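Researcher: I've been going back and forth with a colleague about how Branched-chain amino acid ABC transporter permease might be arranged in three dimensions. Neither of us has a model we trust, so I'd like an independent prediction. The organism is Roseibium limicola, in case that matters for your notes. Sequence below.
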Amino acid sequence: MIPASITPKTSPLKASTLVPLILFLGLALVPVYAQVFDDRFMMLFATRIAVLAIAVVSLDFILGFAGLVSFGHAAFIGIGAYAIGILSEHDIWEAWISFPVALAAGGLFALITGAISMKTRGVYFIMITLAFGQMAYFTATSLSAYGGDDGLTMWGRTEFFGTNLFANDISFFYLVVGCLAASYLLLRIFTGSRFGRVLAGAKQSELRVEALGISPYRYRLVAYCISGMVAALAGALMANQAEFVSPSAMSWHRSGELIVMCLLGGLGSLHGALLGTIAYLALEEVLSGTTEHWRLIFGPLLVLVVLYGKGGLIGLVTRRPGK
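Model: Here is an independent structure prediction for Branched-chain amino acid ABC transporter permease. You can compare it with whatever you and your colleague have in mind.
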């Protein structure tokens, strides 16, 4: 008889494959629903969900797997958005130029701020990332040449080799979902690799990882830069969807929302981050349309899920009966 401790467990593998497939399939079918029922709002709402899901997945990568509680993550979204907006202001609309610039800007900001932030731990790391996030926010508000507090209006969307591929809502939606799928798969590969195992090991015991001759600092810094670049991609897509860039995109309130979405879906699970984003925005939309005091209902519901839903929503979905 094979000992129970080494018996293969297939349920987690099935869940980690089935849940994201269902979520992505559901997103892919939204345009069909929108066309059949002539519901443009659902099309725009699903696009917003997919854009924010990219940012939430990027945050879960460092929060759930590396234990880095970044309270300034929205700064990367704003940097990516402003890169697109500022380039469009200078009549640069090509995606092959603006998107790499947005990703490079997000990665550079992450490298500079991360190199400093990684020297701290716990609440100090939270506070220093918050400080850097607010620094980016106030810098954006001071850019009077690009709208300042009022934000920057884009007179169109990014072009792709001279074609208006981004202008059509359906093609733009599938572009966003494609970026979400690529980001999800990339980060999932990282978490399943030796790189991800080092991050997970350092999260549990940094001293043990250092005893093996591995520097957690470098791995965490690389993870932070990757996360910042993916979040900047979300910002670039967000700017194109709204055709508007605002400093509010990088406020600490937005960073707090991203953390809540991660907690709601389940930390340390990239598909949990997807589910948390969908549930958060859908619940917010339903409750805000029901009563003006929707936050009095929304807040306690989130607290209950986080406190009593072991592993977040993904834990409730994949939990076997009797567990």
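Researcher: What would you highlight for our discussion?
Model: I'd start with this: The first strand starts at residue 152 and ends at 153. After that, consider the following. The longest helix spans residues 216-242.
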